[in-house]
Amino acid sequence: NAGVTQTPKFQVLKTGQSMTLQCAQDMNHNSMYWYRQDPGMGLRLIYYSASEGTTDKGEVPNGYNVSRLNKREFSLRLESAAPSQTSVYFCASSGGTSGITDTQYFGPGTRLTVL
Amino acid sequence: EDQVTQSPEALRLQEGESSSLNCSYTVSGLRGLFWYRQDPGKGPEFLFTLYSAGEEKEKERLKATLTKKESFLHITAPKPEDSATYLCAVQLYTGGFKTIFGAGTRLFVKA
Q: Quick check: helix, strand or coil at residue B86?
């Protein structure tokens, strides 16, 4: 039981490049989330998916897109990376179906640097 | 504006020296408060959920308590392996569910 897995663990991009961060969970959870974590700030929600086939914007969605590929997988795409998107990105999942309603379990993170 | 503030930002303790971390919040529609532990280079790990004022939860050397305005994470006789960043998060409902994380308290425990 791996829990929540994320790939890649590290990535360096140049401004304007695109990339997709992958996330998968094996806990049969309905809800999945993408957060970013910056020094001195709390985790901030980018997008979430309350169930397969639905996605909603969080606090800081600009510059990102997401895809809930199936119940297990939730990807985050940066279409044109900017230095302001340098951060650590965490994927999380929870069992609830009504939005962000219960305990979230986190992946190990992706450390992204945009030059 | 809904807000979650954790204090202190950093705390240095000697092994065995008990202390408390604070999480204060000004939100409406609180549904629950969560505590997480985060080790360097890793994702947050769930510790506790508290739902109502007066509730307490314990796990090993950690005890979490909740009032109407704040939560405390009490650490009794800490060990070096308790060194980590402790995050609190509040879950609220204001027409839709939302979770707000505090910035965390970095705890250092010296042997």
A: strand
pLDDT digit string, tens, across residues A79-101 = 999 999 999 999 999 886 554 45
Q: Is B102 on the interface with A (CB under 8 A)?
A: yes
How far apart are alpha carbons B51 and A96 in whole angstroms? 16
Q: What is the largest CA-CA distance in chain A?
A: 38
Contact pairs from chain A to chain B, CB under 8 Å:
51
CA dist B35 and B78 (Å) reads 17
Contact A101 B96 (CB under 8 A): no
For residues B34-63, give the mean pLDDT: 94
* A1, pLDDT greater than 80: no
Among chain B residues, the shortest Cα distance to A50 is held by B97
The DSSP H or E segment spanning A75 is strand A74-78
Q: State whether residue A6 is helix, strand or coil.
A: strand
